[in-house]
Amino acid sequence: MSELAAAEHGHDHYDPEANKLGFWLFLFTELLLFGTMFIAFAMYQDMYKIEFIEGTHHQNIILGTVNTIVLLTSSLTMALAIQALRRGLKTLSIAYMAFTIVCSAGFCVIKFIEWSAKYHKGIFLLNENMDTLPKGEQVYYGLYFTMTGFHAFHVLVGALLIIWVMVAVAKGKVHAKRLSFIDNVGLFWHLVDLVWIFLFPLFYLIR
Amino acid sequence: MSEDKSEHIMPVIGYVGIWLCLIFLTGVTVAVSFVDMQNLTLFTALFVATIKSTLVLLYFMHLRHDQPIIFYMILACLGSYAVFVILTYSDYLYR
Q1: What integer pLDDT is reported at residue B7 of this predicted model?
Q2: Is residue A8 a part of any domain in this protein?
Q3: Are A20 and B12 an interchain contact pair (Cβ–Cβ within 8 Å)?
Q4: N or C: which end of chain B has fewer CB within 10 A?
């Protein structure tokens, strides 16, 4: 409803609980989206155990671990940004969100380094060299690029949403008594973190 | 309801504590991956990941202090997911 109409009625229809429920419903669709890919991973991992372990050995565990820490830290600062705004500390909240965005950029840069290292070895989706690899490794890399690609896309979208929230907080549209927007973006960001918590061990650590 | 009620606010130190637990558990999974445990590797990796995601859900996503309905909705979602997993697995194992 427009602000003018809301003013005429003397109230608006802001309902944080309904907003939250609705956003959780959206998060469930995200869980099922990644969930189906996890099922595919589980089946193929069982079919091609040796090839999957071989694929894992080509992953850079250090970069993967650093990226996990970066993402967990960004999740912390996002939670702190919401907590700060709840306490009415606007500037601190914006600072935490700025740090969260730096972390998300760091995550994407590291992901880019990992992907380009593979690309230079001829390991990438639709690359001719992929045909020379054993079938199981092709499947492993196919799943790797698809799942981490989908995830990286979510990181990008999440970062854009956080920038949007920062602007809204700076303009005073989101504040201690109107938290739905920042709360829901926070939930989205934590979901991105949740997905990575499972992606990381499956692709890097099953050796 | 037209504005946010003053809900439970977890102190900063609480969030940092959860973050430290998450980092520690990440360290544990990475360390364990260098130990050859055959089939247990996958199990431990998933077990630790489940603990980590529970921490994120309860504290970062505030489930612990949210209305119970959200918790039940998540159970329903995970239940539906379990149905997909069981049906797919039964097809895969007995085809």
Answers
A1: 65
A2: no
A3: no
A4: C
Question: What ipTM goes with this model?
Answer: 0.91
What single string gives the DSSP state of each residue in A65-87? HHHHHHHHHHHHHHHHHHHHHHT
Span of A132-136, A154-158, B37-41, B85-89 with lowest mean pLDDT: B37-41
Give CA–CA dist B20/A206, Å, rounded: 24
Asked if B77 reaches chain A (Cβ–Cβ under 8 Å), the answer is yes
Chain A CB within 8 Å of residue B80 CB: yes
**A191, part of any domain:** yes
Q: Hey, where are the domains in chain B?
A: 10-61, 67-95
Q: What is the CATH number of the domain that holds A36?
A: 1.20.120.80
For residue A155, the Cα-to-chain-centroid distance in whole angstroms is 4
Range of the domain at A148: 18-205
Query: Which ranges of chain A have pLDDT less than 70?
Result: 1-11
**What pairs with residue A175 in β-bridges?**
A178
Which residues in chain A are closer than 8 Å to B26, comparing Cβ atoms? 65, 68-69, 72, 200
Q: Report the pLDDT value the prediction gives residue A138, as an integer from 0 to 100.
A: 94
